[in-house]
Amino acid sequence: MKFSEIIINWYIKNKRKLPWRKTKDPYKIWLSEIILQQTRISQGTPYYLNFIEKYPTIENLATEKEINILKIWQGLGYYSRAINMHKTAKFIFNEKKSIFPKKYNDLIKLKGVGPYTAAAISSICFDEKRAVLDGNVFRILSRYFKINDPINSNLGIKKFTKLSNKLVSESEPGNYNQGMMDLGSTICKPKNPLCNLCPLNKSCKSKKEEKFNLPNKLKLKKNKTRYLVYLIVKHYGKYYVKKRLSNDIWRNLYDFPLIEFKNSNENNDKNILIKLKNMLKNKDIMINQKVNINYKLTHQNLNISFVTLIGNIVFKSKKFEIVSKNKLMSLPVPKPIENFIGNI
Ligand code: SF4
């Protein structure tokens, strides 16, 4: 039996029951794929269900305000996904009469759609012979064929792309791709693969040698650590906030006035007060409370201090808005701020 037939037969009997598996509507498949980028299925599923309920069609999503989409996305991370998703919805609604592109080569031109998502949509919804390539597929192929090239090297990516496009089924590319996704996440797991349950175990090279240390990856540089100090300033019972507009993490979300230090030694009360005096109209201020937390993003470690200030505080800059606590709770904010404001 061919490799792809083994995968499809296994998939038909063992597929996971996931809400987006009930449809071939490209809008819903696209939504699920965007939500699941860099996200575990258990975390992404409630977001998918929420989006589908609130925006059952691409028109509903395209005509929504970005701020409301970011609020629903809150907690999922990688907010540029939500911003690009909204731009793509608007583009398809305004320029394509709400008709989703069918071909891989057209899908890949959409904002926020990369090779994996374009291959998933074109194969699942339109039976185009395109293979998906993600962590699950890399793991199965590298172990099964014993390929040592690092999966994040140019050579490795070329080799795996060529191989996966050769293996993908001509007649059922969608089932094949979904089979690879499911086999990788439920059987050929990163640690302790369940080879006894695997349909590939008779001819798998790693199984034969009982060595499962593939795939290989090149070591990337260490995560950057940042020292952020958020200033919690009450002005007649309201809070100073601002929209993050720069090309940085959490773009278009709201946060508090911010001071950033380059290293941990600089992050002390004396330096905070020196910086503050340049930001404020009045000078008589005091630090009332300081709460420190660590928060990890994929490529950054954030060392965050929430500093509550007392005094008659007025910022020089006009870029801040002053909002009530209720309004603050309704704005899209980064996860650590959401956690913090739950307690103020
Ligand atoms: S036999 Fe084991 S190592 Fe080989 S593909 Fe299956 S689960 Fe992975």
Quick structural overview:
The chain is of the alpha+beta class.
Describe this structure in words.
With about 350 residues, the chain is α+β, with helices and mostly antiparallel strands. The chain is elongated and about 80 Å long. It starts with a helix and ends with a helix. It has helices spanning about 5-15, 25-35, 40-55, 60, 65-75, 80-95, 105, 115-125, 135-145, 155-165, 175-185, 205-210, 270-280, 325-330, 335-340; strands at about 225-235, 240-245, 255, 260, 285-295, 300-310, 320-325. It has 15 helices and 7 strands. Strands 1, 2, 3, 4, 5, 6 and 7 form a 7-stranded mixed sheet that branches. It has 2 domains: about 5-210, Endonuclease III, domain 1 (Orthogonal Bundle), CATH 1.10.340.30; about 225-340, Nucleoside Triphosphate Pyrophosphohydrolase (Alpha-Beta Complex), CATH 3.90.79. β1 (about 225-235) and β2 (about 240-245) form a beta hairpin. The model has no long low-confidence stretch (mean pLDDT about 95). α1 packs across α11, α2 crosses α3 and α8 (about 115-125) packs across α11 (about 175-185). Iron/sulfur cluster binds next to α9 and α12.
